[in-house]
Amino acid sequence: MLRNEADMLRAQLLTATNDLSQAKSETAAARKAAEASADLARSTKSSSSSSSSAAVAPAPAPAFDIDTYRAERLAATQPNIIEVSPASQPANQPTRTTPLFLRPLFLEKA
Fold first, then answer.
1. For FRET with 64, which of 27, 79, 83, 90 sits at 20 to 30 Å CA-CA?
2. Cα–Cα distances in Å, from 52 out to 26, 45, 48, 49, 60?
């Protein structure tokens, strides 16, 4: 029984080793292909840039102004309006801001 398990483990180890070596060779081949395509792109780019010596340089980006940005964002923001009770409200009537535990005190004074 132990001999069969050992043989099975050896077979699994050999399979894993073969799979690993195959993956390494595929990775190396993919790396070589990527390097070759990069070299081809570089050589194509260098030959096209040497043929057109009058290439136009991109325009520099304008400087970022934080104050202008803040003013634009503030103008685009909805105002935060806080509603308060009118000033003509009687003093003995509880307002929304009066805590619930104090409201009976206001109602008793009336």
1. 79
2. 39, 11, 6, 5, 21
Taking the complete model, does pTM exceed 0.85, yes or no? no
- Residues 78-106 have pLDDT tens digits of 777 666 666 665 555 555 666 666 666 66
Largest CA distance in the chain: 99
Cα separation, 9 vs 22, in Å, equals: 20
User: In 3-state terms, the chain is what percent helix, strand and coil (to 5)?
Assistant: 65, 0, 35
Stretch (H or E) spanning 54? none
H or E element at residue 71: helix 66-76
φ, ψ of residue 68 to 5 degrees: the values are -65, -40
- Determine contact, residues 36/42, Cβ cutoff 8 Å: no
